[in-house]
Design goal:
CATH class: Alpha Beta
CATH superfamily: Alpha/Beta hydrolase fold, catalytic domain
Largest sheet: 10 strands, mixed
Helix content: 25-40%
Low-confidence stretches: 1-33
Radius of gyration: 19 Å
Strand order of the largest sheet: 1-2-4-3-5-6-7-10-9-8
Number of domains: 1
Distance between the termini: 29 Å
């Protein structure tokens, strides 16, 4: 039975009594691959790769850091764009390639489908079928989970990737999709950390707990911090009680339930002037669940402003965090502490 937490909301939002620190403990162990460096064909980072999946051409970009040691296996980060964005735009918006160079991670940018005459609000704009949202992908019930699972298998078979360190992140609709992937592909994913999107899918029949962090701006103009009611004005499929009720705090507790975390409230709270982090740190499978709250943040929590030509910028500010914190580093510090046993990946 779902726990009831609403009575604790005020305490959780403003409490500074409890404090804790989720330490970064990056594994230095690299897994030697039987292949040699000559066996790998490194993709062009500025050219789409594609395969056909269920009648659609599905495409993505791959970025391999220039200094990556190809004789060792590297972690991989799948970064999913938001609604009405693209792989190239997401990579440019977030500048995740800088983090990739620093930590030695391969980055994959999958692309959602844009379908003319889908009947959805904002049709012919790239989107992900994350459950209650969004756009063309939801209207056509596109099997994005199946595509992304096949893509994981594709890139891990062709590149020197540690299958125990497959991570997902994303923004907005991409964050929703990353969380749906956590529920439906937990056997392949080591951890998820994403921004400005709530879980819109509730079937956990395939789920085995993995760590999840969601980052949210208290002043988010699109996916509001208290609920996602704003979305229902534009997206008919999101007009459900569950969608409207969902918010940052409820999303945190939903994942605490899925991960069977101990306690009725977070056992680690890191207060701060710019942001705070609330975490459940004692959960099944040695996992954690965390909510990062940017006190003055809007829908865009990345450093860069993205106000040039972005659709629907009349309903949101599109301004970034102005360098107050490094969003990708915070996500990496969370995700990189976790890996899956290789035998678990193969199950």
């Amino acid at each position: 039975m779902r726990r009831t937490y609403s009575s604790l909301l005020a305490f959780i939002l403003f409490s500074s009594v409890l404090s804790g620190c989720t330490g970064v403990n990056e594994s230095t162990e690299e897994l030697h691959d039987s292949k040699t460096t000559d066996d790998y064909e490194i993709p062009n980072p500025d050219a789409y790769e594609c395969f056909e999946f269920e009648g659609w051409d599905r495409c993505w970009l791959v970025y391999v850091p220039e200094n990556l040691n190809l004789s060792l296996r590297a972690p991989v980060i799948f970064e999913l764009h938001g609604w009405a964005s693209s792989s190239f735009e997401m990579r440019n918006y977030t500048s995740i390639t800088s983090l990739a160079e620093e930590v030695g991670a391969i980055v994959v940018h999958p692309e959602g489908l844009a379908i003319p005459n889908s009947g959805a609000f904002g049709e012919n704009q790239e989107s992900w079928n994350a459950g209650v949202c969004c756009g063309d992908a939801k209207a056509q019930e596109i099997n994005d989970v199946g595509f992304l699972i096949k893509l994981i298998e594709n890139v891990t078979s062709r590149l020197p990737i540690d299958e125990g360190r497959v991570y997902f992140t994303g923004w907005s609709n991409g964050c929703q999709m990353s969380q749906r992937m956590a529920l439906e592909a937990s056997h392949l994913i080591a951890a998820v950390a994403c921004t400005s999107g709530y879980l819109g899918f509730t079937d956990d029949s395939l789920y085995s707990p993995i760590p999840v962090m969601e980052m949210h701006g208290f002043l988010d103009e699109i996916a509001q911090y208290t609920n996602s009611g704003r979305l229902t004005l534009f997206e008919e499929d999101a007009r459900t009680i569950e969608a409207v009720q969902n918010g940052a705090i409820e999303n945190l507790y939903d994942w605490a339930n899925y991960n069977n975390c101990e306690g009725f409230m977070p056992d680690s709270i890191q207060p701060g002037a710019v942001f705070s982090i609330q975490s459940f740190t004692s959960c099944d499978n040695g996992t954690e669940v965390a909510l990062f709250t940017s006190h003055g943040g809007g829908h865009n929590l990345y450093i860069n402003d993205i106000c040039d030509g972005v659709p629907y910028d009349f309903i949101w500010s599109c301004v970034g965090n102005q360098g107050l914190y490094d969003t990708h580093q915070i996500m990496w510090d969370f995700m990189s502490r976790f890996s899956k046993e290789l035998e678990e990946v193969g199950e």
